[in-house]
Amino acid sequence: MTSRGAGTAFSRRNYRLSNESEKPKVTGIVNSKLLNDYLHRIFPSADGIQPAAAYRKPLTFQNLQEHLDKLLAEDSGAEDSRDQILEGRLGPSTVVLDHISGFEGLLLVDDDLLGVIGHSNFGSIRATTCVYKGKWIYEVLISSQGLMQIGWCTLNCRFNQEEGVGDTPDSYAYDGNRVRKWNVTTTNYGKSWAAGDIVSCLIDLDEGTIAFCLNGVSLGTAFDNITRGAGMAYFPAISLSFKESVAFNFGSRPLRYPVEGYRPLQDPPSMDLVEAHKLLGYLKNVIHIGIDVLEGKLVEKDTSMWQLQGEPTVLITLAHIFNHFAPLMCKVYLVEDVLMNFLLSILEQGGAVEAHPLIQQLLDLMWLLMEDYEVHECLKQLLMSLLRAYRFSPIIPDLGLQIHYLRLTIAVLKHEKSRKYLLNNVLFDLLRSVVFFYIKSPLRVEEAGLQELIPTTWWPNRFTKEGKESKEVKEESAEERLRRRAYDRGCQRLKKRIEVVEELQVQILKLLLNNKDRGGGEASRYIFLNKFRKFLQENASNRGNLTVLCPPEYMVCFLHRLISTLRCYWDGHKAKAPAALNSEEAYVPPQLFYNGKVDYFDLQRLGGLLSHLKKTLKDDLALKANILIDPAELQAVTMDDLDEDEESATSTAQRPVAALAIGGALARPSWLSSPTLGRANRFLSTAAVSLMNPRRSLGTLEKMKARTLSVEQRTEDDRAAGEPGCVRALVMAALVTAALVLAQAVWAGEVSPEAVEGSHGNEGLLLGRPPEEPEQSITENSLLEILDGIVMMYNLSVHQQLGKMVGVSDDVNEYALALKDTEEKISRCPKRRRDIYEELVKSQKVFSEKLNHLSRRLAWINVTIYSKEKMQDIYWLLRVCIRTIEHGDRTGSLFAFMPEFYLSVAMNSYSALKNYFSPVHSMEELPGYEETLTRLAAILAKHFADSRIVGTDIRDSLMQALASYVCYPHSLRAVERIPEEQRISMMRNLLAPYEQRPWAQTNWILVRLWRGCGFGYRYTRLPHLLKTKPEDANLPSLQKPCPSTLLQRHMADLLCSDCDMAPSFLNSVLNQLNWAFSEFIGMIQEAAERLERNFVDSRQLKVCATCFDLSVSLLRVLEMTVTLAPEIFLDWSRPSSELLLRRLAQLLNQVLNRVTAERNLFDRVVNLRLPGLESVDHYPILVAVTGILVRLLMDTDFQGAKRATAVLLADPCFQLCSIQYLLGHAEPSALAATPPSADKRHFSLHTYTDYISQEELAKVERMLGHLSEESKQAAASMLVSPCLVCTQPRNQQSCGEGRGRVPFLWWSGGTRHASSDGDLGGFSLGSRGAGFAQAAWLGHTLHSPASCVPSALLNATCTHFSMPGSWNHWELATQGGGVAALLHSGHVGVRAGWENSPGQRLVWPNLGCEVRLGVPR
C-alpha cells in the first residue's frame, strides 16, 4: 500500500506545528532518517531487540504496511494450531442458550441468547454445547435473588413446570435462594446470593466432581462421583421461576473470576487477542514517543498530557495502526479485555477525570480513523462492559471498583460526539443506564467489609412516628451511649465513601443534561429529555408487566441524582438570569397540563379523561388560555391509542423474524427486561417450538459508509466509493489531506463559539399562560419538563420502595425485643435448670449475631436511602408539588387538567417524610416545616370535596390523607392554622349528608376531632386488646387522642346556624347507624349458625368487624353532636327536633337491647374471640351509647332532660335493665333462672377506672336513679287506664300488651317484622316486661300522602307503626318507600274487614305490596 502524502510538503500558513510563536514553524512529514528511526521505535520487532541502524531495513510509509503485516503474523500460526484443540467438548464453538429445542416452559431470551427471564412457574433452558471430558467453567450473572437452580444436566433430563435442574437424575444444581444443592434430593450448601453476584459453575469430568463459586470464593465441592462414561455429556442449564433473570458468560467475554486449570466452554479469540495487544502496544508507543522536528530527534513524552497537535507523521502512523485495530474493536471480548482495561489504566494514575485528556484524544482518533459503524459498535460494547462491570463488581469497603468504572464512564461521556451517539442509540435504548446511578445494598455485610468499617454495632430503640421516644424506653446507659457514638462514627465513615460514588453519578447526569454543547445539532439535554420521557412512558404504561419495569431500587437512586443535577442547573440559570426563580421556589406551571406540549400518556387527569376535558372545557381554554380546540379533534376517536397500536405494528414488522417466537403475541419487553443489558425480545414457549426460526447468522453490514476526512460533510466521491473493498484504501489515501484539514479546523488552537440552547420541541412549552399565572420567568423550559418527569417518577415506584426498605428497621426492632426478652429469661432462669440456660444462651447468641448483621446493613440503607440529604430531596419534591397545586388551583376550571399524580405525590411524599425517615431524621428539622404542613393541610381541606376532581381513587386518597392528618398533633395544629374560611368550608363538606357519597372516612375524621372528649373515649387501644400485640403500633388509629376544640366549635356553629344542615346530616347519620348495626347483627347471626357447622368465613368476619367499628364511630359522632349542639334534639321549636330525638332514642334502645341481653348472641360472639372480630367487645359500643344518654339526661337543662326522658321511656323498646347492665346490675329473672358461673364476669363500667373518670361514673349512677324513678311513675300511670285495643285491664293475658304472644306480619319480600323472644330483627312481646307498641296516628302529613295509607289505619285510635327508617317496628308507606305493616292486637279482630287468619294474603290499595298474616314460629 502506498501513501500519497509521503513526500508532500505543507506550507506554514496552512499548518501550524506549535503554539510557541518564537520558534520557527516547520510543516510536512519529517526527513527519511528521522522517519525511519521513529517507525522502528513505534513498530519494534517481536523479540524486542533493535538492530543497529546500519543493519536495519529503512522504513517509510511505502513499506510500513508490509512491515506491520509481518509483525502481526509472527504468532498467528501457533495460535491457530492451539485453537484447534477441542477435545472434551461437543457443539458449536460459539456457545449460547438453546432456544430451539433445549427449553421447557415460558422464557424470555435476549437477542444475544445469553440472558434469560422466567415467564412461567419454573422454566428451564440449557446451552447448545456440552462437555464430556476435562475441566470446564462458566459464569452466571445474578440479576434477581429469587428462586433459581443453576448447574449441569444431560441430554436425557426431562424437565417440567414443577421439576427443573437438580430435580432429576444426572442433573446437578445450586440454589442460592434457599442455600441448598439439588440432585433429586437436597441438602444445605453454600451461601445465599443477591442481585449483582456472580456464580461460577465448575465441572471436573476427570475427577467426577462439580463445584460452585460465589464472587470468586469457592463454596466447596457440591457433588462428587457424578455419572460419567459413554454417552454422558453435561450441558450448562438453569431453572428459574417467574420474573427471575440471569445472564450467562460461557466465554464470549472475559471471565470475571477465572479458576486455574478450568477452561471456559467458549474459547477466547486468542489470535485476535494477540494482535489487539500488539496493536495497543504500538499505539502506546505513538503516545509515548514524540518527534522534535527542530532538533531532529525523538523525545519521550508525558503520556497523560499527550495531544496530537496535527503532526502528519504521527497521524499517518496512527492510521496504519487503526487500519488493523478498528475491526478488532467491534468484538465484545476484545473491547472488554483490551480497550476497557487500557482506558482504565490511564485513570489509575489518580486525579480528576479532567486531568486525563488522553481519553478525549483517543476518542477523537477513533471517530477520525474508524468507520462509523465500527465506532458505534465499539462505543456500545464499551458502555455495556462498563455497566456490567459496575453492576456485578463486589462491594468493598472503599467502593474502589465502582468508583473506577464510574470515572471511566465520565471520561467517555465528556467526549461530546460520543456522548450524543450514546444518548441517541445506546443509553435507555440498549442499556440499563439507570444502573449507573444505583448503589446496591450488600446482603452479606462481612464480604462488603462493613465489619471493619463499622466495628461497633448499635440499634435504636423503638420510637413513635412523631419522632418522640416511647415511654417504654429506659434512659440510655453510659455503655450504650459509647456504643451509639462509635456506631455513628462508623456510619459517617461509610457515608463519606458513598458520597464519592454519588458525586460521580451526579457528574454523569450533568454531562447528559448539558445544553451548551460546542458542536452542532441537538444538545445533549434534549436527547436525554426525549429518552427520559420514553423511559417514563414504558414504566407508566406497563405497570402490570413486571418484566419490563425499571426496578424500584434503581428508581430511588436515579431520582435523588436527578434532583441534585436539576437543582444545580436550575440555580445556575438563576445566576445568569436574576429574574428567574431559584430551585427553592420551583414549581411546574399549570399551562403544561393543557397546552399539549407535554405528553402524559394515558395517565388520569383530575377531571377525568383528556378527551372529555377538551370537550367540556373548550370554552374555558379559549377564554382563559387562548387555546382553540379543533372541532375535528373533538369528534375523532382518541388518537393516542391508535398511534400506539400503529407503532406496535410497525415495530413488529421491522423486527427480525427470529425475534418473534409466537407470532409477536407478547409485547416486546423494554430495555430493563434482561440482565445482559439488552432488549429481551425472544419469547420461548414449549408449545411454540414449531414456530421458531433459526437465529439469523451475523454477517457484515449490507452497506458501509466510508469515513470522510472532512469533519462537516462528505464528498460525492466518498459516497460513491463507500464500498467495503475500498474503504481502507480511501482512508489511507487521504491521510495527508486529513492532517491538513484537521490542522486548520481542530488542532490549530481555534475555539468554536459556545452553542446556545439548541432547538427542541419545547419552545412552546409555556403557551397558554392563564391570567392568574405571573409573567415572571421560572427557568429554562427543558428543566421544567425534567421536573415534571421527576414528579411522575416518584409516583411510579419510588414511594413504594421507600416503604419497603423500612422493613429492615422493623426487623432490627423485632430482634432487639427478642434479645431483651431472652436476656431477661436468662436472668430469671434457675441454676438447677442447666438445659434451659444453655438453650437460652444459644438463642441469645443467634439474636446478637443477627442484630449485628442487621445494624450494619441498616447503616448502609440509612446512608443510601434515608440520609438527611435524601430526606431534603423528598421534602423539596413535596414543596414543588404544593406550589404546583396552588398555582393550578388558581386557574379555576382548568385545574381539572392537572394529572392526578401531583396530588398523589404531595400526599405520599409527606407520608414518607413522616413515617419512613424518622426516627433517624425528624421533619421538624427541615426549613419551613410548619409552613409546609399548613399549606398541605389547606390543599387537603379544600380538595377532598372539590367538584373539579372526579376520580374516585384520588378523592378517596385525599380523604384518607386528611383523616390521617388529623390523627397527629403537629399536622392537626396545621389544619387549625389554615384560614378560618377554609376551615369552615372543610367542616361544611364533612357535615354534608352521608347518602350518595363515601362517608366512612368522613365520619372517621369527625371521630378523630372528638376523640379525647367523649365519655370514656381517651383510650389509644381498646382495653381488652392491651395484652395483645398490635399489627402496626404506628397506624393513625392507634395514635394518642388529640381533639380539636377549634374545629368542634366550627361544627357546632354550622349545625346551630343552618336549620337545613342539621336534620339532613343527622338523619343520614342515623340511617347509616341503622344500616351498619343491622348488618352487624345479621352477620354475627350467620356466623353463629356457621360455627355450629364448624365453618366460618374469615372475610365475612372482617366485614362484620368493620360494621361494628362503623357503628361505634357513628355513635361517637352522635355523641359529639349532642354535646356540642344539644338544642338540635331538645329545642322542639326547631323543625324536626322531636323527630330526631325519637329516632335517636329508638336506635339507642335497640343497641342496648341487643348488646346487654343476658346469654344473647352478642355475648357468645364476644366470648369466643374469633380471629377477625378482635375489636368486637361490650366496652366501645356501650360507652358510646352511655355518653349520648348522659349528655341528654344529665348534662342539659331541666326542660331538655325532661323531654329526653319522656321520649326515651315512651319508646316501646326501652328496658331499664339495659341501663342497670352498664353498672353490673344483672337482671333478677336471669339470675334466678341459672346459677352464677364462677368464670362468668358481668360487664360493669366500674372495672374501667383507667378509662372512665369518677365524675363520669357518678353521672351514670345518677342517670340510673333518674330513669328508675321516672319509669316507675310511667308504669303506675299506665295501670290506671284500660287498653285502647281491647278495653280490658292491661294485666290480662288475652291482649297482646300482656305476656302472651301475638301474630305478626311480613311482606312478600321475606323481611320479618316480628319474632319470638330473643330473636333478632323483630319485635318481642311479653318476655321482659316490654310495653306494647302503641301510638296514636300522627297524621299523614308527616309521612306520605293519605292516598297511600289504608283508611282503616287513618281512623284507628291505636295504630301500631314506627317512624321512618327504623328497623325493629313497622313502617307506614312513607317517603322512604317502606311498606306499612300492622301488628294484630290479640283476640280482637282486625278493623275494616282484616281477618285474624294466619297466612292470609292482603293487598293494600294504591301500593301494590302484598302483606301476609301469620303467627310466630
Summarize the structure.
The chain is of the alpha+beta class. It has 42 helices and 23 strands. The strands form five sheets. Strands 3, 4, 7, 12, 13, 14, 16, 17 and 20 form a nine-stranded mixed β-sheet that branches. Strands 2-5-15-8-9-10-11 form a seven-stranded antiparallel β-sheet, with no helix packed on it.
Explain what you see.
There is one protein chain. This protein is an alpha+beta fold and 1417 residues long. It is 45% helix and 7% strand. It is built from 42 helices and 23 strands. The strands form five sheets. Strands 3, 4, 7, 12, 13, 14, 16, 17 and 20 form a nine-stranded mixed β-sheet that branches. Strand 12 (198-204) and strand 13 (209-214) form a beta hairpin. Helix 24 (868-889) packs across helix 26 (929-943). It is elongated. The chain starts with 31 loop residues before the first helix and ends with a strand. Mean pLDDT is 76; it is low at 1-27, 78-83, 463-473, 637-682, 686-761, 1229-1234, 1283-1287 and 1290-1417.
Key attributes of the depicted protein:
1417 residues, alpha+beta, seven-stranded antiparallel β-sheet, 42 helices, 23 strands, 7% strand, disordered N terminus
Helical percentage = 40-55%
The structure class reads alpha+beta
Mean pLDDT: 76
Q: What percentage of amino acids are in beta strands?
A: 5-15%
Largest sheet: 9 strands, mixed
Based on CA atoms alone, the radius of gyration comes out at 42 Å
Task: Count up the helices.
Answer: 42
Distance between the termini: 115 Å
**Total strand segments:** 23
Shape: elongated
Low-confidence stretches: 1-27, 78-83, 463-473, 637-682, 686-761, 1229-1234, 1283-1287, 1290-1417
